[in-house]
Amino acid sequence: MFALVDAVAFYASAEKVFDPSIRNKPVVVLTNNDGCICAVCPIARELNIPKFEPYFKLKNYLAKHNVIVRSSNYELYADLSDRMMNVIGRYCSNQHVYSIDESFLQFNSQAPDWFKLGQEIRLAVWREVKLPVGVGFGITPTLAKAANHAAKKLYGYNGVAVISDSKQALPILKQMKLADVWGIGSRLSKRLELIGLNNAYDLAQQDPSKMRKFHSIVLEKTVRELNGEVCLSWDEVKQDKKEIFSTRSFGTRITDKSSLHAALNTHADIIGRKLRKQGSLVKKLTIFAHNSPHDAQFIKRSFLYEFIVPTSDTSVIANAVSSVLDKLFVANVPFYKCGLGAIELHSGNFTQFSLFDKSQDKPEVMRIYDQINSKYGTGTTFIASSNMTEKWSMRRAFLSPQYTTRWAHLPEINC
DNA sequence: TCTGGGGTCCTAGGACCC
DNA sequence: TCTGGGGTCCTAGGACCC
Question: What helix, strand, coil percent values describe chain A, rounded to 5?
Answer without folding.
Answer: 40, 20, 35
